[in-house]
Amino acid sequence: SSVGIGRSINHALQYYGHPLIEEVDVSYFIGPPLDETFRSLVPDSRPDHIAALVAEYRERYATIGYVENVIYPGIPEALQALAAADVSLGVCTPKRADFANDILDLFGLRQYFGFVNGGDTGIRKVNQLASLIKDGVVAKSSTMIGDRALDIVAAKSNALASVGVLWGHGSLEELQAVAPDALLRHPHELLRFAHAG
Length: 197
Hints:
mainly alpha; three-stranded parallel sheet; 8 helices
């Protein structure tokens, strides 16, 4: 997702005359809610300016950015195998749900997920998970799988098992620092959940 997200962040920054981020730094800004990202990039901005940056980002992302995603090799096969083993899957993302659904539809993956829960500005993943658990969408026996520390912290804060994956945007050091229950290096390792009791 780094291409579409990075270009959309820079589109918004350029539109309002702010310095752009370098391509090598994009991964750092993937994960937190957009308002947090723009507050870190333009720290002295008023709330209405942050909202304007978010709106400009979303205007580009909704039409161009989401199709700039690429799928990690092995993910479609892993999802197919998990679905065949009746493993229930869902998405909890800081992206708006409509963007997440568009991306899943783009790659023909939406069928594998029972729910897609999207975020918005001001909503942290820990709170998204708490709401999903409270509403009975996510069971307390579920496992949160993510590529950033905030995914693991959100799982732990909600007493869920956590798995860090190293094919995303978080580094080994970032994930080890928050001590997930397991670390996976390749998508085919997801298949262990197909055989879990």
